[in-house]
Structure formats: structure tokens, C-alpha cells
Write a structure and sequence with these properties.
By secondary structure, the protein is mostly helical. The chain has one domain (about 1-319): NCX, central ion-binding region (A middle domain of Talin 1, Up-down Bundle). The protein contains 12 helices and 4 strands, in the order H-H-H-E-H-H-E-H-H-H-H-H-E-H-E-H. The protein has a two-stranded antiparallel ribbon. Helix 1 packs antiparallel against helix 7 (about 170-205) and helix 3 packs antiparallel against helix 10 (about 235-260). It starts with a helix and ends with a helix. The mean pLDDT is about 85.
């Protein structure tokens, strides 16, 4: 009983932890005066992805790789379809040309690369398909390239931001917020992994399903809250940067580090979900050239949400 209670408690711990971390990170970033898109692609994206990161690390250490990869696939699909869909329904999202040319294609490249790396068993005569430690190093190397690109972009786009004279937290508060966020994320990640394993056993469903349909929705709540808050303030750069940056970090950063800790077994059934992730990325890219150019309109956002709900219904059926 305690395991299930902590499983439920783990989600608000993750959300509040991410909230603490993002607030502290954004406060520091604003003091450094970097652009909103750079904040979204880096500190906000990484901060809101830390629930997935903590689950990835703890899951790999506990040998529950099915939950790790299911969570990443599910989280990216939620990000691309549900979160962008809801955000664009609230306020149409204008996407910058640089993001269309670089960051979104990099996210698509990551999805295709995952498909190739996870299905190399027949090529290498391995008994099962898996993300090996070598695959993890490869993913981390590409994450480093993306990080270098973002640093270059941030320097190029650097501009002076107006910092409110009141309401901006001090250095001590920002640092304490960062520490509190890390602690809550670590605890929440452990509780969710333990509870997810127990839940899969009781329900008689696969761990992959739990990761895809339950854990992924819970761990993307920070992205949803951040993106909705951003568009309500009519700041689409943070919303777009948050989602696209999270998608890239999830595949290259989280799966890379998780596979480095312990090889992650890959069930061939998950190929369908990888193809859904690829299709969702392509849908986002193509939508920017339909209707108003470089804008995700409300009707397109409604289509994104409908696609996700259809996918979720299929997951329940496949369960």
C-alpha cells in the first residue's frame, strides 16, 4: 500500500521539483540577459525534463529499462501532440525560422536515429534488440553537438532583457530553489519507478505500457504547465523552445545517459511508438507550411490533440 501511495505522491513531487528548478534557473538566466528562446531551449527544457531524467537514471539502476524507454517515447509524443496542441489552441504559436531549419529537424533526426540504434540486433547478431552502452555514448555525443549549437545560438541572439525591479529573486533564493528541485525530482523519480513496477505486476500489463501511457503523462505535466503559462503570457518562444528542447534532450541526453548506466532492452512492439514519434515531428514541421506560414494555428492544435487521444485509445486497446 505504501508503494502505491508514494507512486501517487511522486507526481506532485516531480511537478513541484521541476517548478522549483525552473524558477531558479530562469531567474539566473534573466540575470545573465539571454533571449527567451534560448531560455526555453536550454534551462526550461532541461528543467521540465528532469522528471524523465530522474526516472531514466533510477530506472536504469533498478533494471527497469522498459519503463525508461516507454516513458521517453510517451513523453515525446505527449510533448509534440498534446502539449503543443493545447498551447496553440490557447494562443497560435509563431515559430522562428531558425527553429524550423535547425531544432525541429534535429528532433526528427533523433527519432530516426533511435529507430536505427534500437533495432541493430539482427545486424550484430545480438540475442535481443537493445540500446547498448556504445549507443548511449553515440547519443550523448550528438547531445553535446546540439548543446554547442545552442551555446552559439545564445551568444548570437544575446540581448538585454528588462529585469523587473521587484519580484526577481536573489541569488540565495535561486540557489535554494535549484537544490530543492533536484531533491524533489530524485525522490519523485524513485517513488514513481517503484510504483510503476508494482502497478504493472498487479494489472498484468507490460512495463512498456505503464511507461507509455501512465508515467509519461505524469512526467510531462511540468512541460504542460510551463507551455500553457508561456502562451497565456503571449510568449510562444518559451513554449516552443520548451517542447522542442525537451524532445531533443529526452532522446539524446536521457536515453544516452540511461543506456550508459545499463543497456536498455527494446521490445519490437515499441517500433510502432517510435514511428508515431517520427510522424508527430513531421506533422509539426508540415503544419508550419499549411495555413499561416510558420504558425501553428488553433485548428492545427485541435488536430494534434485529436491525434494524441486516438493514440492513447490505441495504447489502452493494446495494453
Amino acid at each position: 500500500m505504501a508503494t502505491y501511495f508514494l507512486f501517487i505522491l511522486g507526481f506532485p513531487a516531480l511537478i513541484k521539483g521541476a517548478d522549483f528548478l525552473v524558477n531558479g534557473a530562469v531567474s539566473v538566466a534573466r540575470r545573465l540577459r539571454v533571449s527567451e528562446l534560448a531560455i526555453g531551449l536550454t534551462l526550461v527544457a532541461v528543467g521540465t525534463s528532469l522528471p524523465e531524467f530522474s526516472i531514466g537514471i533510477i530506472g536504469s539502476m533498478k533494471g527497469t529499462g522498459e519503463i525508461v524507454i516507454g516513458n521517453i517515447l510517451g513523453s515525446n509524443i505527449v510533448n509534440l501532440l498534446m502539449i503543443l496542441g493545447v498551447a496553440s489552441i490557447i494562443y497560435p504559436l509563431r515559430v522562428r525560422v531558425d527553429t524550423i531549419r535547425r531544432e525541429i529537424p534535429f528532433g526528427l533526426f533523433g527519432a530516426v536515429m533511435l529507430l536505427v540504434l534500437a533495432n541493430d540486433g539482427p545486424v550484430s547478431d545480438d540475442a535481443v534488440n537493445a540500446l547498448s552502452r556504445t549507443d548511449g555514448l553515440t547519443l550523448i555525443a550528438f547531445m553535446a553537438l546540439f548543446a554547442a549549437h545552442i551555446v552559439t545560438f545564445a551568444r548570437r541572439e544575446k540581448k538585454k532583457l528588462e529585469i523587473p525591479p521587484t519580484g526577481e529573486r536573489g541569488v540565495i533564493y535561486s540557489s535554494a530553489s535549484l537544490v530543492a528541485g533536484v531533491v524533489l525530482l530524485a525522490l519523485g523519480g524513485k517513488w514513481i519507478v517503484d510504483g510503476a513496477v508494482a502497478l504493472a505486476s498487479v494489472l498484468g500489463v507490460s512495463r512498456s505500457f505503464v511507461g507509455l501511457a501512465i508515467v509519461s503523462i505524469g512526467t510531462t505535466l511540468p512541460e504542460l504547465a510551463t507551455s500553457v503559462a508561456a502562451v497565456r503570457q503571449k510568449n510562444p518562444d518559451i513554449a516552443i523552445g520548451n517542447v522542442v528542447g525537451s524532445v531533443v534532450f529526452n532522446v539524446f541526453g536521457i536515453l544516452g545517459v540511461s543506456a550508459l548506466i545499463a543497456p536498455i532492452p527494446f521490445d519490437g512492439q515499441l517500433n510502432f511508438d517510435v514511428f508515431v514519434m517520427i510522424a508527430a515531428t513531421l506533422l509539426l514541421f508540415l503544419s508550419l507550411f499549411l495555413g499561416r506560414k510558420h504558425v501553428v494555428e488553433r485548428w492545427q492544435g485541435a488536430l494534434f490533440v485529436a491525434c494524441y487521444l486516438s493514440y492513447l485509445a490505441y495504447l489502452i486497446y493494446r495494453g
